[in-house]
Amino acid sequence: MARNETVKNDNAVDNSAPGIDAELMSSMKEEVLRAKEENVPMLQAFEAVAKKSGLKVNTIRNYYYRYLHAQLVDNNESGGKRGKVRSLKGVAGKSFTEDEVKNLVMSILIAQAEGESVRSCANRLAGGDPKKMLRLQNKYRNVIASQREYVESLMAEMSQKGMRYFNPYTRQIVDGNSVPVFAEQGAGSKADTRSGTDTQPSGKDSLIGIIGDAVATLSTFDDFSVEGFFKGLKQLVDMAARGREKGDGDELTRLEKAYNELKSKLQELHDFVRQLAGINQRFVDLPDEQKLSALSDYINEVKAWLDTYEKVYKDA
Which superkingdom, per the lineage (predicted)? Predict the structure, then answer.
């Protein structure tokens, strides 16, 4: 009897995600740690655990992300904010709380670092409810596109806690021990203060930030191919480089002009898209009881935006 009680207590300690067997959790942690140490895809860890347990790989993967999410919630609660709502359950049909947004963004960034898509993670967090999934997905993309400073603060927090996550602006996976340069600079690190070094981002970091911001905004529109746009841009640059090598001055001038025009259009389109993002952001953030009365103004704003699109961009 005493042995059973000991096992039960061990389960309570090791099983940070309710509903997952402690022995399975231990095996999962062991294989994931081995995968990280050997720098191999996380899928191999899930496959190893699935082979041992007889469960499906997708089941093991879902268990692992449930465990990560439970850890994230526990870490937040240990910070003295127990009074706020932590769960993402039931968010459809009401405004998001501050903690729900934080948990949502951090959970998806962590999941993306392990190879899971935004849609798949949102669906998992929503428990398979399509309406909740769509709302979680849209909220995440809206935050990424319009609240960069806030997202960077969350990434800095995850780095301090040793978490592995995906940076949506540089499109890179960041290990928990390495804080992104712009996150340290944005926070004004003590090390910089002591050494007196310049905290302004380098030209390369600034360019990465600009491109990342543009990609994050443009990728929220399903009918716009970000990949196709940048492939076209690369072709222009390659053509310009070949023209320079051949000494074709006229062709080079033409290509450079086309490149500058395309770059200008990208900036103009980026600003135009941000206008629509702002319109939607203001409406989505309204309390539910105010949305009905504000619906007419919202529709008029969107209509005005569409009218401008028809006149300026439709045939461009």
Answer: Bacteria
Could you report the per-residue pLDDT of 69-85, keeping only the tens digit for each? 777 666 665 554 443 33
**Which residue in this structure is represented by tokens 């459809």?**
92
pLDDT surpassing 70 at residue 257: yes
Q: Which pTM was predicted?
A: 0.36
Would you state the structure tokens that stand for residue 131, as one six-digit string? 């309406």
How far apart are the C-alpha atoms of 278 and 285, rounded to whole Å?
11
User: Residue 312: which residues within 8 A CB-CB, separation 6 or more?
Assistant: none
Burial bucket for residue 264 (CB in 10 Å: 0-12, 13-18, 19+): exposed
Which of these, 32, 51, 195, lies nearest to 115 by C-alpha position?
32
Q: In whole angstroms, what is the distance from residue 306 CA to residue 66 CA?
A: 41
pLDDT digits (tens, 9 = 90+) for 223-252: 556 677 777 778 887 777 666 666 566 777
User: Domain map of the chain by residue range?
Assistant: 13-195, 221-312
Angle, CA 20 vertex, CA 17 and CA 25 arms, to 5°: 85
